[in-house]
Design goal:
single chain; alpha+beta; 3 domains; 11 helices; 6 strands
Length: about 475
């Protein structure tokens, strides 16, 4: 490696780690604020909180590392252009392609690392993060009680609340359904209720102005109604510590490339089975329909269905009940085909979702290469003016890139685009744009008018008195 290559790489290291730290901090602050209520209300231990933050770093770094590449490219080449180092290198016969070669190979290595990270580490961290968040939410069911839906997190009870105040936790129209092993079900209704925590950390539900209904299934007539002004129920086996459970179910973002590929293969096998069944159902109906056109088959069918008496059987009678078999077969076929179409749509939707995540594991790491090609010519054209807006421009550009990826994911789910095109189109377009900018910058053509206007505006703002 030449001395100039080492110098260029060193000039990228500082901005890269600066951008990575700033961007990761911005994203993590947003995550911590979102989870702050969960931490405070659930009394989560400090080590668990730190583990939750560490697991959240996985999907944050998957975004901020490509963004940091763009930041380092913009800041490093802007600084080198401002100090006339790019001009000196090119005056010595070094082309722009050769200047960016060392950062380009570093981006190749980083792309490979990002793929390995997204394929092996990120799915596991996402899986553990999901399980840990689920266990924390189950630690204290008070958080899980939402108005307007049944809650079954409390062992032995199903709870329904019509209204709940977030300010004081007061619940209106509370219903508890308890299944008694020795008798029948027990139903408790109350006009108001609230959840209380005892000194031993057990959870109690205080109910006011309600009724208790007891039913004995062995003696239904022994139906009892008990009215009360105030009642407390101890919800056993809750809030006694964080219980970790490892769910085997994995979502799309919790799977590796191999897992996603297996899911897609399974979906294709399911689709092949559904299509085979469709053909078989249609063929069976056609065989029966055309078979009834033959005289012998039609006479046997009329006798079997009771529309015609059997000449060889004196006890045979004519019933003629129900619709003709052809009509019944057509209705049954249409109903079966409608169900199979719904199954086909469901399987195809899952397969497309898996394919989108499959291609995303390659396309987002590839952004590290794209931002080298795109950032170097932009930074050189902006020169000294690019140093002040490098991070802001990187955030803006990557926000557009990620919005493009997210929009492509929605289009793929709705079958407007193939999954591979939805995930790779931003990379293809930005790669072509970066190659074009690099080519014209290397030819020392006139500065791009857009960048020239932006640079002039920034210089003008800096020259204004404060």
């Amino acid at each position: 490696m030449r001395l100039s290559d080492r110098y260029i790489l060193r000039s990228h290291l500082g901005p890269f780690f600066l951008g990575l730290g700033v961007l990761t901090f911005i994203f993590m602050v947003d995550i911590i604020v979102d989870l702050l209520e969960l931490f405070l209300v659930n009394d989560v231990p400090l080590l668990v909180v730190l583990e939750l933050i560490a697991l959240s770093l996985g999907h944050v770094l998957a975004l901020t590392i490509p963004m940091a590449v763009l930041v380092s490219t913009l800041l490093a080449f802007s600084q080198m252009e401002a100090e006339n180092e790019i001009t000196a290198l090119r005056s010595g016969g070094t082309s722009l392609y050769r200047i960016i070669l060392a950062p380009f190979w570093a981006a190749v290595a980083l792309t490979l690392f990002m793929f390995l990270f997204s394929n092996y580490l990120l799915p596991e961290s996402n899986h553990k993060l999901k399980n840990l968040l689920r266990d924390i939410r189950k630690k204290k069911p008070a958080l899980a009680i939402d108005a307007g839906r049944f809650i079954s997190d409390v062992p032995g009870y199903s709870i329904y609340v019509r209204e709940k105040s977030d300010a004081n936790g007061l619940m209106q129209d509370v219903y508890l359904f308890e299944e008694d092993d020795h008798g029948g079900p027990k139903v408790i209704s109350a006009r108001e209720g609230r959840l209380l925590t005892s000194e031993d950390s057990s959870l109690r539900m205080e109910l006011m102005d309600g009724e208790q209904f007891d039913v004995d299934l062995k003696e239904p007539e022994a139906f009892q109604i008990t009215r009360f002004d105030r009642m407390e129920i101890i919800l056993e086996d809750v809030d006694r510590g964080l219980r970790r459970r490892d769910s085997k179910h994995r979502g799309d973002r919790e799977m590796s490339v191999g897992m996603l590929s297996d899911k897609v293969d399974d979906a294709r096998e399911d689709l092949a089975g559904i299509h085979t069944r469709m053909k078989r159902e249609v063929q069976d109906v056609l065989d029966i329909t055309f078979g009834m056109l033959l005289p012998d088959s039609r006479e046997a069918w009329l006798i079997e269905e009771g529309y015609m008496a059997d000449p060889s059987d004196s006890s045979s009678i004519v019933r003629g009940r129900g619709p003709p078999k052809k009509v019944t077969l057509e209705k049954s076929l249409l109903r079966t085909l409608d169900n199979l179409k719904l199954n086909t749509a469901s399987v195809e939707r899952k397969a497309r979702r898996h394919l989108v995540e499959y291609h995303k594991k390659f396309s987002i790491p590839f952004a590290c290469l794209i931002f080298i090609l795109l950032g170097a010519p932009i930074a050189i054209k902006m020169g000294r003016s690019g140093k002040g807006w490098g991070i802001a421009f990187a955030i803006l550009l990557f926000a557009g890139y990620y919005a493009w990826i997210t929009g492509g994911e929605q289009l793929a789910d709705r079958r407007f685009l193939p999954p591979w095109m939805a995930m790779w189109m931003p990379n293809i377009v930005l790669s072509l744009l970066g190659i074009w900018l690099l080519f014209w910058t290397n030819r020392e053509s006139r500065p791009f008018s857009l960048f020239q206007h932006i640079s002039a505006w920034i210089d003008k703002r800096r020259s204004l008195p404060s």
